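Example 3.2
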Amino acid sequence: MSDDTDFIALYKELGLSAQCDLAEFKRAYRKRVTQLHPDHQGQDGDMPRLQRLNRMYDAALDFHREHARLPGAAPARPAPRPPGTPAHPGADLDDEGNFDPGNDTLAESGLAESGLAFASDERGSAIIDEAPPVTGKPRSRRYIMLMVLAVLLLYWWGAQKTANPSLDPEGPGDAVNPGLGAPTLAREVVVGMDEAQVRRILGAPIGVHDGRWDYGPSWVQFQCGQVVGWYSSPLHKLQVDEASLRTGAAAPHC
């Protein structure tokens, strides 16, 4: 302990105990300064001792400003709270330490922001508990729900898109889900059908000569670009409508 903070020697110098109040401490200091100062005592004054007393006195005041008590004094215990006063410590005191019931709202808002919760025991003493930390689980669940909704929305949009019929006979829309109102595509060759439709049903011919498309032992006969007849061999049956052949549609005029 340095000379400036030898508070035991300070109290001994002033004839006080560490539990004295600040006013009593200052009175004892002024009295002792008068006893040591050469201006008052003449040659009997003790200037080095006075200077050491001043340093210790200044250090004691600094300690009091920082801790609200003199060095060595026990921390002040809160006084019993009168019935009906708020349970929050300091909420009912103004800047000078006087009771002010109007300060409750400010104290509660400041303590709520700091994450502290207050309670009181049976004796009315304030108990400060740290509020439980806020976890990120509610926010995580909200993000998961949003992601699920986004996936469902994309799935629904894709289903709506594929449900729309395509005008292209060979387009994917008709093959996957033709939808309502989609044109019905022929599955058999009929008399009067054009070459494009025959190619779609039977595929490309093996050979073509004199308006006849050969499919192995079977063939389809065209006139002016339209079907006028065919032969479907048992060895290679064609997808044809025999009823339309028997009906005997008139041959087209080129």
